[in-house]
Amino acid sequence: MKQGRGIWIGASLLAVLVIAGAATMLRKPEAVESPASVTTIEQPRQTEAVAALGQLQPAGEVRRLAAPASGMAGSPRVTSLRVKEGDVVTRGQVLAVFDNRPQIEADLAAQDERIRSVDIEIPLRRREVARYAQAARVGAATAVLLEEKQDELTLLQRKRVELLAERRSLQADLNDSELRSPINGVVLKVHTREGERPDTDGVLEVGASQSMEALIEVYESDINRIAMDERVTLISENGGFEGELEGQVAQISPQVRQRQVLSTDPTGDADARVVEVLVRLDAASAERVARLAGLKVIARFQS
Q1: Which helix (H) or strand (E) holds 135?
Q2: In the CATH hierarchy, which fold is given to the domain comprising 60-99+178-204?
Q3: How would DSSP label each residue in 41-92?
Q4: Residues with Cβ < 8 Å from 136, sequence gap 6 or more?
Q5: Per-residue pLDDT tens for 47-95?
């Protein structure tokens, strides 16, 4: 009886082990999720265009015209200003008249009168010398007296030469009492008004050409992104013209200098170091701004 019970217990244990083993074998292993591989696509980096401030200027030479010096009195005052900014002028045209002109005209008239007096006296002295020479030949006059008359004629002729030299000096002063344009061009800037005495800036500035270009001040940190012949678009900082101007880089200065064109933005860096870049405007753009020298512009370089 005990032997049968042991057999029964052993069989039960065997059955439990068999069932447990089968369950373990039938169970599927859990799949281990591997992280999905992420492919990073690197987007091309877009470089920002360089923007800088500058101003329009004539494409030709610019002449700064000063008043003549009047010795210890300094420069004379302007009594008549005959042009204004933007006027087209021709070579030799009178631009301004100074207050010393009336006095010079009076001095010149007095000098002419002295010259006329001498011109009348010289022939009389010549005839006198001729008479004394005739008398000296027949013994009616001494040689000493003849020499005195000849010396008087010589001194009078020398005086005439000196008077003519003084007249030329007065004529030069008279010419300088009017300010004339040395070139064909346009009046860019008037520094002195009627009644004022010109200072070191002179009376006015005349540009030799009505064609405009732009002088742009590029920050030294951006200049390596600027290339010759690069296209440039410009807009007015303060609405001086509508739309955009077109041009291209014509020259890049080799020198770094302090900023000259200041922005209307009060937070702008007035002490910034910049490089000057000259932009030659296209013909159509230059014609649009032919009378806007000095106008501030914002340039965008299409690098």
Answers
A1: helix 101-137
A2: OB fold (Dihydrolipoamide Acetyltransferase, E2P) (2.40.50)
A3: -PPPPPPPPEEEEEEEEESS-EEEE-PPP-GGG-SPPEEEE---TT-EE-TT
A4: 142, 143, 145, 146
A5: 678 999 999 988 878 899 998 876 666 789 999 999 998 888 999 999 9
Give the dihedral of Cα atoms 20, 22, 24, 29; nearest 10 deg: -160
Enter the DSSP assignment of 267: T
The dotted CATH code for 210-301 is 2.40.30
Which amino acid appears at position 224 of this protein?
A: N
Helices (H) and strands (E) in the chain, counts: 4, 13
DSSP state of 233: E
- Dihedral (C-alpha) 55, 60, 61, 62: value to the nearest 10 degrees? -50
* Residue spans per domain, the chain: 60-99+178-204, 101-175, 210-301
pTM reported for the whole predicted model: 0.61
Residue 238, amino acid: N
Task: Write down the residue that tokens 């014609």 correspond to.
Answer: 287
Instruction: Give one DSSP letter per residue of 153-208, joined into a string.
Output: HHHHHHHHHHHHHHHHHHHHHHHHTEEE-SSSEEEEEE---TTPPPBTTBSEEEES
Q: Radius of gyration over alpha carbons of the chain, in Å?
A: 48
| Residues 218-242 pLDDT 10s | 999 999 999 999 999 999 988 899 9
In angstroms, the CA 149 to CA 169 distance is 31
**Cα–Cα distances in angstroms (integers) from residue 113 to residues 109, 145, 169, in the given order:** 6, 30, 16
Separation of first and last alpha carbons in the chain: 106
Mapping DSSP to helix (H, G, I), strand (E, B) and coil, where does residue 246 land? Answer: strand
Residues 6+ apart with CB under 8 A from 267: none
